[in-house]
Amino acid sequence: EAGVAQSPRYKIIEKRQSVAFWCNPISGHATLYWYQQILGQGPKLLIQFQNNGVVDDSQLPKDRFSAERLKGVDSTLKIQPAKLEDSAVYLCASSLATGSRETQYFGPGTRLLVL
Amino acid sequence: GENVEQHPSTLSVQEGDSAVIKCTYSDSASNYFPWYKQELGKRPQLIIDIRSNVGEKKDQRIAVTLNKTAKHFSLHITETQPEDSAVYFCAAPDTGGFKTIFGAGTRLFVKA
How many angstroms separate the CA atoms of B72 and B81, rounded? Predict the structure, then answer.
């Protein structure tokens, strides 16, 4: 079974620039998650989709971060403008359904460095 | 629960020894507790999970125990091997039950 795909794997930008990440979940998985993982910390949920609807985005800094999952499959996460503190690994994950009992499968992540 | 605390942050053991990592949670209604392993530069992967209707679950050298009264659960790795070296994350549901809250992680070093 193909896993969660993410691109790019690495990105270096200067502060105030924009960046976008892409995620393709496991086929058939209704729920998609974007996490931010700062070095030395656990993943922090930014946004959770059920199909193309948002289940939770309470920790998404909406003044600069946006995400969409228009057709209920692929998703993009955008940062505009980026700040130094956005340097982190952005992990996408998917699960069959919504609910904390569902096993989440993670992608390889996008490592972002903001200079 | 909304808060998941994980200890220790770093653990170093000799190959063959056991390793124990403990997590506490705040929401007594939490009912599912997964553990993820993240090797350096790789994605987190589920290694074992436990649901609230059992107190212990074992899978070869890995076991997880749950104490609902005390609101803590622990990961036990026996006969550790160098390839067990990684960061381990515990997780628990938030109050609403839809979101997963991760612990800060434990970096395990297994010395050969």
Answer: 26
Name the residue in chain B with its Cα closest to that of A105.
B45
Whether residues A43 and B44 touch (CB distance < 8 A) is answered with: yes
d(CA A110, CA B62): 30
Instruction: Give residue B1's pLDDT.
Output: 44
Q: Provide the chain B residues 2-31 that lie in CB contact (below 8 A) with chain A.
A: 6, 30-31
CA angle A79, A84, A87 (to 5 degrees): 70
Verify whether the Cβ–Cβ distance B102 to A43 is below 8 Å: yes
Name which of A48, A101, A106 is nearest B43 (Cβ-Cβ). Answer: A106
CA–CA–CA angle B73, B47, A90 (5° rounding): 100
Rg of chain B over Cα atoms, rounded to whole angstroms, equals 13
pLDDT, tens digit, 9 for 90 and up, residues A97-110: 877 778 899 999 99
pLDDT value of position A43: 92
pLDDT digits (tens, 9 = 90+) for B27-41: 888 888 999 999 988
Quick check: B100 contacting A, CB < 8 Å?
yes
